[in-house]
Task: structure prediction
Amino acid sequence: MAWSAKSPPKWFIVDNFFRDKEAYDEAWSQSRGGDTLWVDAGEQLKSLGAVEQALSWLSERGATRSDSIAIIGGGTVLDYGLFVAAIFQRGMKAWSIPTTLLAAVDAGIGGKNGVNFQGLKNYIGTITQPAAILTDLQTLNTLPPLEVMNGWMEMAKHGLIADSDLWLDMSKFASTPAPSAMHNLIDKAAQVKNQIVSRDGNEMGERKSLNFGHTLAHALESRAAALKRELPHGIAVGMGLVFSLHWSASRMATDGQIMLRAASIIRQWLNNGAESFVAQTLMDFDADATWSYMQKDKKNAQNAVLEVGLKAIGEAHWNIPMTREEFETAWSSAFDRDSAR
Ligand SMILES: NC(=O)c1ccc[n+]([C@@H]2O[C@H](COP(=O)([O-])OP(=O)(O)OC[C@H]3O[C@@H](n4cnc5c(N)ncnc54)[C@H](O)[C@@H]3O)[C@@H](O)[C@H]2O)c1
Result:
């Protein structure tokens, strides 16, 4: 990898996936007097204990706040590494180098970083913009299909909330395409996130629209975790999008049919690649448990479930209260036909 900026990184935190891969040249950091910390990706990395290890690693090697550090990996490595960078000696310059599709269009952009705490996801962290974001699209070619779907669903969300052209282009695919077939769509989706974050870095308003479909997705993930079932994030997000489109159709959309058509496209993507996960999630569904997780979502205020809805494709509204009755109606409209199969 070539570093053209004025202060190229000296320190590296890199996903172990790239160890011994030709694409990563460890000698480069060593020739600059720096070093590489190899880490295993995954939620277990997002802990204060692991953060302390990285801080010690930097301090033992004499790193200083005027050095730059590059973080290379998917969302978990970036969340963790960019947090380390943000707090080491009150902050060193960090390069965000996403290597998963989800990170390329979402987690690697926007400056939110941090770790989980006492079972609560992303509970400790900062919002600190990286000095640079670099994505090498070729890196995405080795992603397994479920990881591709994780990113694809976030891209769909970006189209639905803010870029109707992106959505239109994506909606032409019958199933999640390979990363090599979607380079221009990845650029567009990353731009949506960039633009929203540049207008509302601290999530005072518009940035909340990025939570479209996510209140239900997180509730389904919590429920699956409680039942010790595996539910990939992208599938939970896909189901969240289907649900939120049905809710938008009845609650606020100018043309409900357009919302329902969008929902059925996402439903088809889920069927072509993840049907068994969806079927299991529908079988496990419990309205009381799911609603109670939704009420605990950290984006809420004053005991109301505050949701993001669409008035039209590309036009999101946020802080819209959702009632329990609306939740049940939207769920039935989105999924009852499937669970009856
Ligand atoms: N900070 C934010 O704004 C933000 C936004 C969305 C999600 N997130 C966070 O992102 C995390 C999920 O990110 P993720 O899905 O990238 O997870 P991840 O970092 O666990 O990566 C998923 C898997 O892909 C592997 N991998 C990485 N690059 C690869 C490549 N090029 N080829 C093959 N395999 C590769 C990893 O080793 C890992 O096994 C969650 O913790 C979530 O909270 C953060």
In short: Residues 15, 17, 41-43, 46, 73-77, 79, 99-100, 102-103, 106-107, 110, 112-113, 122, 139-140, 142-143, 147, 150 surround nicotinamide-adenine-dinucleotide (CB under 6 Å). The beta strands are 11-15, 35-39, 68-73, 93-98, 112-117, 120-127, 132-133, 305-312, 315-322.
